[in-house]
Amino acid sequence: MMNNADASGGAAVVVRGLHVRRGRNEVLDGLSLAVPRGRIVGLLGPSGSGKTTLMRAIVGVQVIRSGEIEVLGLPAGSTALRTRVAYVTQQPSVYDDLTVRQNLRYFRRVLGAPASDVERVIGRTELGPVAERLVGTLSGGQRGRVSLAAALLGSPELLVLDEPTVGLDPVLRVELWALFRALADDGVTLLVSSHVMDEAKRCDRLLLMRDGELLADDTVDGVLEVTGTDDVEAAFLRLIERGEPDLRSPAEAADAGGHGRHAASPAPAERAPEESR
Ligand SMILES: Nc1ncnc2c1ncn2[C@@H]1O[C@H](COP(=O)(O)OP(=O)(O)OP(=O)(O)O)[C@@H](O)[C@H]1O
Q1: Whole-prediction pTM
Q2: What is the CA(171)–ligand 1 centre distance, in A?
Q3: pLDDT tens across 58-99, in order?
Q4: Domain contains 125
Q5: Which residue's CA is minimally distant from atom 18 of ligand 1?
Q6: Which residues does the annotated region (Disordered) include (predicted)?
Q7: Residue 273: its pLDDT value, please?
Q8: With a 6 A CB cut-off, is 27 part of the ligand 1 pocket?
Q9: Which atom of ligand 1 is nearest to the CA of 49?
């Protein structure tokens, strides 16, 4: 039976058979998945399910035990991906003692992005009114936005965002999701983690994780249909009860007319990547 990682032509990210151990914990236990280009893919799961570890592996900063990760057609962590992939961690990674604009000018130079990018990303993230403020004087939400602005320098093709909406009020969350959608409309691929299940409905596809395993890799509607539920939280619980994952590729969901139940176990990779890490 085909797994989404095998129906991955043109995917931004393809992961096959990924095992990661951190300390004594087997944190990721044989994950296979694909992230389609130009889409918002939500990575959801409870705290400790392995979302950050998966993101770290995709951006190439996590030591892996085994498996293959291809990002934009290259092995994860390749030097050539440095400017094509941006990662925003849960902790804002900007300098408190510089202004917003000074931070962005600095990161722009480090990345070798065009000088005009600074004003472009300030506009895109609506940071104009606070551009001359020291980052240390901003609210948590505004600081997160500065990290995001820095990630947008150089126009990366893949954005990996670890819980970007955590701690934000509902209005700011809606604004941020509108920005994510605008970026996806421009062709950017976004992998966005959250443990807030109601953010799932804003995503084109969902990866539901629990204890280092994938419970679902499907569209929101697909997950709801397959589980016979009307919200993602209930679907998540149903998949746990059933003990069977929902790992349908877009093609399989279409073949099933949007109704067929498909229980798949990760299939062996059909083609090997050019290099493995
Ligand atoms: N440096 C580390 N050494 C050992 N174990 C770790 C380390 N970092 C994380 N872990 C363990 O790996 C597992 C997955 O952690 P991870 O941070 O990937 O989960 P998460 O889903 O992103 O959680 P959260 O939503 O709380 O950020 C957890 O059991 C965690 O305790």
Answers
A1: 0.87
A2: 29
A3: 999 999 999 999 999 999 999 999 889 999 998 888 999 999
A4: yes
A5: 50
A6: 247-277
A7: 34
A8: yes
A9: 21
Flag whether 94 is in a domain: yes
Residue 105 falls within a domain, yes or no?
Answer: yes
- How many angstroms separate the alpha carbon of residue 58 from the centre of ligand 1? 15
47 lines ligand 1 (CB under 6 A): yes
Cβ atoms within 10 Å, residue 2: 15
pLDDT at 270: 29
> 130: domain range?
87-155
- Mutational test site, ligand 1, from 51, 63, 199, max ligand atoms within 8 Å of CB: 51
- The tokens for 276 are 């493995």
Q: What is the pLDDT of residues 227-245, one digit of tens each?
A: 999 988 898 888 888 877 8
> What is the rounded CA–CA span in Å between residue 210 and residue 195?
11
Q: How many domains does the chain have?
A: 1
User: Does the pLDDT value for residue 127 go beyond 50?
Assistant: yes
Q: Report the separation in Å between the CA atom of 87 and the middle of ligand 1, taken as the mean of its atom positions.
A: 17
Q: Is residue 188 part of a domain?
A: no
pLDDT of 4: 58
Give the pair of three-digit tokens for residue 18: 């990924």
Question: Residues of 35-45 as b/e, b for ≥16 C-beta within 10 angstroms?
Answer: bbebbbbbbbb
Distance 77 CA to ligand 1 centre (A): 20
- The helix/strand/coil state of 52 is helix
